[in-house]
């Protein structure tokens, strides 16, 4: 059980590895590039969700999981309203796929910003003594 926990921890801490591994497995299986990139992004989104929560929790942000879930729900509401206002007749599958890809982009940006903020915070703590 310890080995499985270690592997999962690495994937959650470094979700880029999940993306790379899924992408190359898709390449070995002969999946076309656009499809395997989308599949890798879809699977990585799950790891990114937990990674963002862990990164910001380690930076001492309060209620990280709750705030993250509320933020993602807000994005979903905004997307549905925009599609409704444009009178786009799209099904739930299209909305979910679009929303999932938006989540991938937003969580990737939040993950990157969390790492940058953490590095900056560590440097300032080191310099200040």
From TrEMBL:
Transmembrane segments: 6-26, 38-56, 68-86, 98-120
Keywords associated with the record: Membrane, Transmembrane, Transmembrane helix
InterPro entries named in the record: DUF3397 (IPR024515)
Name of the protein: DUF3397 domain-containing protein
Organism: Chryseomicrobium palamuruense
């Amino acid at each position: 059980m310890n080995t499985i926990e270690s592997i999962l921890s690495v994937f959650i801490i470094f979700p880029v590895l999940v993306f790379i591994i899924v992408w190359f497995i898709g390449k070995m299986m002969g999946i076309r590039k656009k499809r395997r990139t989308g599949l890798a992004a879809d699977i990585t989104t799950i790891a990114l969700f937990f990674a963002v929560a862990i990164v910001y929790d380690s930076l001492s942000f309060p209620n990280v999981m709750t705030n993250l879930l509320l933020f993602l729900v807000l994005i979903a509401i905004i997307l549905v309203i925009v599609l409704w206002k444009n009178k786009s007749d799209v099904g739930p599958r299209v909305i979910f796929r679009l929303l999932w890809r938006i989540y991938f982009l937003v969580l990737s940006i939040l993950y990157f910003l969390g790492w940058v903020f953490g590095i900056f915070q560590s440097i300032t703590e080191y310099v200040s003594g």
